[in-house]
Amino acid sequence: MPNLNPAYAKLAGSYLFSEVARRVKKHKAEHPEDEVISLGIGDVSQPLAPAVIEALHTAVDEMADPATFRGYGPEQGYAFLREAILAHDFAPRGISITADEIFISDGAKSDVGNFQEMFGPDTVVALTDPVYPVYEDSNAMAGRTGDYADRRWSNIVYLPCTAENGFEPALPSRRPDFIYLCCPNNPTGTMISRSGLEKWVEYARANGSIILFDAAYEVFIRDDAALHSIYEIPGADEVAVEFRSLSKTAGFTGLRCAYLVVPRKIRAVTPDGAELNLHDMWLRRQSTKYNGCPYIVQRAAEAVFTEPGRTQIMKAVAIYRANAAMMLEEFRSLGLQAFGGENSPYIWLKTPDGMKSWDFFDRLLEKGAVVCTPGVGFGLSGEGYVRFTAFASPENTRRALDRFKNIL
Ligand code: PLP
């Protein structure tokens, strides 16, 4: 038998959502009469916008005609989409990145998971705790996280985000090479303030670190003072890459399209001390391992950045925002501590009576047939919390909340 990569052999248990799915499946098998409502995994419920559907149809027809058929596209993505993203997401905010610094992909999960592989085994990674599990697991798979014991890797710098520090990570005592920041945050649903992000950019610049800024939930930001892109901070284009996704922005969880900004100014160093441009290295990596997001999907994505497309996607976002508001109001009226939900589709709920995350998850599933996500699955600081998503239909959100109330 072949030897398994030792880093994979060290991986902790099953991926969080697989364990959630396993318990839900078991519950359904034991209680076939229950109609389970999921406010667990962050998958959308609203269909694609009409402008997106129309663009898809048109692009499919193009593929049927020899004159307009497209085969392999550019690995970095079509210029029409990169230009549309630039004109919509970055240029209006005075950000001076260029279209060729944007890379189109099939998802922020793969981008965020793959990006670390350009770096060496000694690279030190800082993660907020709780955290989107992909950041931690992808570094563990690369074998640079040390040993795993008591739910912690010995070589990761953990940055606790708790109610006490307002879910804003403090600067680390040990210098990391990478700092993963997710804002609006999954799972806590909270934001890092403008001054907080400025502090991180300053730190990265002073310490030669790179910030991996995950803005997958940017469309949910309502706070006028909040930053939408890390590049609104001067100098961030020398130290930060930014991940965006159309999954939650425009319901592309099934269609798959995301984008990553790798500015040309970011540099890394080779073992013999030579400086390299990270943008060129990422292009090299993508050209080798990836043949690009499908043409028809990129045309569909382009429609998101048109006037009608934007109006239509914001209708779905408004539904999710209203769900989040409904949940926040209900939880707070029950005297519970609930965070997030204002600039994000996630609510981070402190469990009642100090219950542990998985105990509360099991109770809610058993007694109410409602699925949430146990906070501890996102990291040790998530113990005693559960995450609810606002992505269900308004009817199901209401029904889940009624069941929740009855259980309490
Ligand atoms: N980043 C964060 C913080 C997420 O929560 C998710 C999805 O849940 C992703 C990235 C992945 O997005 P995509 O569907 O584009 O792979």
Write the layout of secondary structure elements.
Blueprint: H1 6-9, H2 16-30, E1 37-38, H3 50-63, H4 79-90, E2 102-105, H5 108-115, E3 125-129, H6 133-141, E4 148-149, E5 152-153, E6 156-160, E7 178-182, H7 194-207, E8 210-214, E9 240-245, H8 247-250, E10 258-261, E11 267-269, E12 275-277, H9 278-289, H10 295-304, H11 307-333, E13 338-340, E14 346-350, H12 357-368, E15 370-371, E16 373-374, E17 385-389, H13 394-407
Parallel strand pairs: 1-15, 3-6, 3-7, 7-8, 8-9
Antiparallel strand pairs: 2-10, 4-5, 9-10, 11-12, 13-14, 14-17, 16-17
The structure holds pyridoxal-5'-phosphate (PLP).
Overall description:
- The strands form five sheets. Strands 2-10-9-8-7-3-6 form a seven-stranded mixed beta sheet, sandwiched between helices. It has a four-stranded antiparallel beta sheet with strand order 13-14-17-16. The protein has a two-stranded parallel sheet with strand order 1-15.
- The protein contains 13 helices and 17 strands.
- The longest helix is centred in the C-terminal third of the chain and has 27 residues, at 307-333.
- It is globular.
- Helix 3 (50-63) packs antiparallel against helix 10, helix 5 packs across helix 6 and helix 11 (307-333) packs parallel to helix 13 (394-407).
- The mean pLDDT is 96.
- With 408 residues, the protein is of the alpha/beta class.
- It has helices spanning 6-9, 16-30, 50-63, 79-90, 108-115, 133-141, 194-207, 247-250, 278-289, 295-304, 307-333, 357-368, 394-407; strands spanning 37-38, 102-105, 125-129, 148-149, 152-153, 156-160, 178-182, 210-214, 240-245, 258-261, 267-269, 275-277, 338-340, 346-350, 370-371, 373-374, 385-389.
- It binds pyridoxal-5'-phosphate.
